[in-house]
Amino acid sequence: MNILDRIRTKRYHVLQVDLSNPEVHPSSCGVFCKLRDRIELEHVLNAMPLNEILDLIPKNSRVIVLFSGDQVLTRYSAEERSTLFEEIEEEEFYLQKLVTRGGWAIQSACRRVIIDTILDYIILNKRFLMDVSLSPTAIPILEGTIRKEILVIGHFQFSFGEKELEHIREDKSTGSRKRPDERINLSGTNYTPEQLSQMAALMHLLLEGPAHLSILKGQNIQNRFFCRFRLTVVLTLASLFVLLLVNFLLYSHLQYELSNLKKNGQNKLEKIHEIEGLKSQLTEFQSLRISDRSDPEETYSFYLEEIAHGRESGIWFNSLYIHPGNKRFEKGKPYSVDATSINIEGEAKDPASLNRFLVSLKGTKWISDIEVMHYEKSLEQPNADFEIIIKKK
Amino acid sequence: MVGIPIMMLLAWRLSFRQTYNSVMELRQFRSTSLQYPDPDLTIAQLNEKLQLIKADDMGDHQSTDEQLMSAISQNTERYHVQLVEFPESHIYASNNYTVQTFRVRLSGRFSNLVRFIHSAEYDLHTCRIVSVGFTREVHRKQGEKLYADLLFQSVYKTNQ
After folding, report:
1. Interface of B with A in 94-153 (CB under 8 A)
2. ipTM of predicted complex
């Protein structure tokens, strides 16, 4: 599998810090982006003090710090098993070792105090610190990529053969770069030695994994974003687990209680079902039956007698309906009547006769209201037609 | 991160929902138990009501029309009224009950018709009168006639 397939991060910032005096001396930052099949230098933030350059790097972006300058001590040897810094104490120095395929041992060392101060500053500024590398120790990681080139980085000159680092020597020419403007072509892109050094630091991370695992023992180079994400996931899962556990216990308790209640109250449950059945029967019956009398004494013959008794002279009935209903039966529908009304149509000799009849009816206890729906006297007929509706209490 | 909401959803569907259902079932069980502290008494009261209905309103639907016809024919002679029409009845069936409605048209004097109605109200147990209508019609040959349209209704249980 291609190494790039394992990488999910799309953009890396390789921050090169000159340890000679990071507050004053310009730092630079190469922004590299991951494409489908290669890593490409996107742009460079150049020649600024560290605090200014940090402001240009987005928060939570992936940052690799590459330390360079006079404070980084670098030694080399043609024997790969050589120990080049015997005199330094590991408690005071960070040490980065690398053995090339060509058998060269390259080691760099830097005081912990200096590095820790700058790392703390970067972490405090909420940047996602992925790796730390000491220049130019990272350069040999590009072995096999640079071919037949002489590369000068810092005070060191590297000479690459077909595949391997063939020669490394200190550049004695007064500390300045021998060919400062020379660019090295890698896969069609021209890199300055400085940019190549940044690329090497990034490649170091991708190929070898975070350097801090080997060189910064005990140093808390933190990935705030990752830690927060992992913490969130862990907390969410833990909460979910607790929630499920509580739910399980509650469910078990409820089931136990329900089964107990059902066991003890089975007889009662059956009776409740019976009650509900009887109640629904009763409700259904009551909805079907026409409730036509509130008082058992108030029968149809009673109403007829009351109305007939109240009829005055000069009043004749043509029709009288107690609880009028539809004249026709409708199939599929229950037959219903208006059990509160009595409709009377008839003829009156004069309005006074009708009025006397209405007054006599209003005196009865079972009538709540009488409405005169119609009263008409035509010239052709001697009597007036009327229609009244009596509302029962 | 996508897995967490899916897990939550599954947990809700498979677990929390069941707990919720159990809580509701328990609550309903308790409230029903409280609603009927003495279920035997409630059953007895409801049965009594239904028995009353049965005695008062419900008859044997197979013979209701025969009984009604028999009662009407007996009373028409007694109260000097004439049976004019006894058309087909109307039947409506709900879940447990069936309602049968009969329309009967009689003619006669008002006082005789009222006595007939009075008798039907007190003596007829197979069905009840639910509507009474009087109409006066003038015929060329027979002169003026008074008609009484009576609607009888009986309710009986379909599923015993």
Report:
1. 94-97, 99, 101, 103, 110, 114-115, 117-118, 121-122, 128-136, 151, 153
2. 0.72
